[in-house]
Amino acid sequence: MTMSNDEHLRVSKIKDGTVIDHIRAGQALKVLGILGIDGANDEQITVGMNVSSDRHSRKDIVKIEGRELSQEEVDVLSLIAPNATINIVRNYEVAEKRRVDRPDVVEGVLSCPNPNCITANNEPVTSKFDVLEDGTRCRYCEQIISDDIPSLIDPE
Ligand SMILES: [Zn+2]
């Protein structure tokens, strides 16, 4: 039996962990960034980019072995991957599906791009953004970010 790489990737299973599916094609690395996954820990990550989704479209898929994403982490994903589906896998079976819900507030994940913002000046203040229809707004300086969210992810 032979399989194309696409098919192999789609059916290969992880034992325990999280599968993030239906990420917009090309966004997988941004998803890893917003989750703070850089391969520094022992997590085994499988990234599939531009995988056939159906006859007409392509998607990215991320598999994280040995880690279950929390609802908070899943909600943050909504900023860049609103249509992603999250499968929590235990012992090779999908044990839970999580929906990506847009949170009202994102705390401590993004850093404010405004150099005059109190959160950008090493103050011991946790960044806090309100999630609006068309962007996210800094709670402290009211700067609105409408795109390029991944570049603002706090490396810590
Ligand atoms: Zn700010």
From TrEMBL:
Superkingdom to which the source organism belongs: Archaea
GO CC, any one term: aspartate carbamoyltransferase complex
Coiled coil location: none
Leader sequence segment: none
Annotated residues for binding of Zn(2+): 112, 117, 138, 141
One Gene Ontology molecular-function label: metal ion binding
InterPro entries (UniProt xref): Asp_carbamoyltransf_reg_N, Asp_carbamoylTrfase_reg, Asp_carbamoyltrfase_reg_C, Asp_carbatrfase_reg_C_sf, Asp_carbatrfase_reg_N_sf
Domain Aspartate carbamoyltransferase regulatory subunit N-terminal intervals: 9-100
Cofactors: Zn(2+)
Cofactor binding, note field: Binds 1 zinc ion per subunit.
Keyword terms of this UniProt record: Metal-binding, Pyrimidine biosynthesis, Transferase, Zinc
Residues of the Aspartate carbamoyltransferase regulatory subunit C-terminal domain: 106-148
An annotated GO BP: 'de novo' pyrimidine nucleobase biosynthetic process
Function field: Involved in allosteric regulation of aspartate carbamoyltransferase.
HAMAP family documented for this protein: Asp_carb_tr_reg (MF_00002)
Subunit field text: Contains catalytic and regulatory chains.
PANTHER family membership: ASPARTATE CARBAMOYLTRANSFERASE REGULATORY CHAIN
UniProt family annotation: Belongs to the PyrI family.
This protein's name: Aspartate carbamoyltransferase regulatory chain
UniProt source species: Natronobacterium gregoryi (strain ATCC 43098 / DSM 3393 / CCM 3738 / CIP 104747 / IAM 13177 / JCM 8860 / NBRC 102187 / NCIMB 2189 / SP2)
Organismal lineage: Archaea, Methanobacteriati, Methanobacteriota, Stenosarchaea group, Halobacteria
